[in-house]
Amino acid sequence: MRMKIGIDAMGGDFAPLNVVKGAIDAYNCLQQNTKLVLFGDEESIIKICNENNFAANNFEIINTTEVIGMDDHPAKAFSQKSNSSITVGFEYLAKKQIDGIASAGSTGAMMVGAVYTVKFIEGIMRPCISSNAPLLNGGTAVIADVGLNVDCKPDNLLQYALLGSIYAKEILGYENPRIGLVNVGEEAEKGSLLTKAAYELMEADGRFNFIGNVEGHELFTGEKADVIICDGFTGNIILKQAESNYRLAKKLNIQNDFFDRFNYELYGGTPVLGANAPIIIGHGASTPLAIKNMILQAESVIRVNLIDKIKKSLSIKKNG
Amino acid sequence: MRMKIGIDAMGGDFAPLNVVKGAIDAYNCLQQNTKLVLFGDEESIIKICNENNFAANNFEIINTTEVIGMDDHPAKAFSQKSNSSITVGFEYLAKKQIDGIASAGSTGAMMVGAVYTVKFIEGIMRPCISSNAPLLNGGTAVIADVGLNVDCKPDNLLQYALLGSIYAKEILGYENPRIGLVNVGEEAEKGSLLTKAAYELMEADGRFNFIGNVEGHELFTGEKADVIICDGFTGNIILKQAESNYRLAKKLNIQNDFFDRFNYELYGGTPVLGANAPIIIGHGASTPLAIKNMILQAESVIRVNLIDKIKKSLSIKKNG
Known about the structure:
2 copies of one chain form a homodimer. The first copy, chain A, contains 11 helices and 11 strands. With 320 residues, chain A is an alpha/beta fold. Chain A folds into 2 domains: 1-124 and 274-305, Isopropylmalate Dehydrogenase, CATH 3.40.718; 125-263, Isopropylmalate Dehydrogenase (3-Layer(aba) Sandwich). In chain A, helix 7 (193-205) links the parallel strand 7 and strand 8 (209-214). Chain A is globular. The A-B interface holds A 136, 147, 150-151, 182, 184, 191-193, 195, 215-221, 232-234, 236-245, 247-248, 251-252, 254, 256, 258-259 and B 136, 147, 150-151, 182, 184, 191-193, 195, 215-221, 232-234, 236-245, 247-248, 251-252, 254, 256, 258-259.
């Protein structure tokens, strides 16, 4: 399958250095017909390639002159910095000159880019971002939302369950992923106004394998759920707390494979689930390893045609 | 200081056995003039004392014939099971025949007991429960709320900050505890509708040392905050996720003092902050060690006269 993955070479705290290095590392892992298109300052990109003994013409480089910073107002910056790597990248995406876009830069600007250009999949109220995390049973969990929508409605959580289920099937290879709702108790009637209402919707839906509530101590055991659904506030706290296990273990000189798997660099990036094109968001502090994995993640999302799979699932009637 | 601590001998998944054993273990650690008053089935209590070669008359035993179970409706059970250990215990508390009450039983029934008898401290909208947790800097953190109020308003979080600050000062000995708000970003303008509004209130208050937002990976480093404020939904997830670190470490054969300190048994119980009398709630699955620490916690709360300290702090004007 031929594909072109757009990379925001200027996105992230250590851009363009870490992005270009990560793209170089990813290059040898990609399928033969996958091409990387780097948006950013051409001179810097070529210089980093040269310093790493890598032929810059392995990449397609689109020279851009502006950068949207983390402090910029996303909507204003997206419009006003019309020659920024993100804005130009989304123009290419909208024209299908690239098949997806990945950035470790401003999540806000990426979302504005989605809304202004490729839009959301029909029927999706608000997209979400997911993260992978290790399960003690050896599997990999999906957590969604991990921060895109911090004030969720029950309907949002229902859609995240559906999106997470499709992601777990298509990207992680689960046959019938178990979907759990993060909550403060096991019983259906436990929880906040949000989770109680979401529970009812999720239980009645029928398009995914809802197993009920999952409590804080059950998130990573794998005994209950493969996909962990919550609002973006809760998911952001859970994810950062979980990732800190890895750093804690390192600090405390604990060598353990399970704790090592909480290293975000292994997962690299998360697709915006519900956007109408492959849009992958990476960690602001991405290392080259994280960027490499973000790019490989983008390749998977495009290869399995995740967007079409989501559209198809959304068109299935509830309980149908 | 003379005091009588009421213990719900029938509360918890392994009551009365674990409760009586825990009370026996606590007995030798209490100050000379502290007396334990056990509410529950006298015959069982005496039997357990005998089996443990402990003179039952070291306790004051108030025989009760009913038990409020975890599945009982709290308000109905509190009224209808008028000879239950919790109901009778609260009668004693209301009449000041005991100075505080501790239970690992139904949190709901304990809260009903508070509302029906001793009430909340004037000005407190909703009380909270806190939990201690280890900090990597060697200190101890306070997290509040950890589950009493899952649907918080910004004013609730403001009061929890004040209550948590007093608790950290009086019980943990912090001189000027640093109060952090759990949030998804560092900046004041980040967060959910709830946390953005709470941030403004907390920053303007002036009665405690507000240091701003604390993210999920910063909760237990001790670099930012000593007291971690959040709604009860978030706090419950954080606490259970943190406690599972201890169990994970055990399962993975990791021996580490820091992870060991996430063992809830070390903290035992949490006072209901904002109730108008010392009310201590323990973990349903309490072991004897957890019960012992719950009782010692109750003794501390009574000894430092936490309730009066809270009343005094509430009477200080904001920014005064």
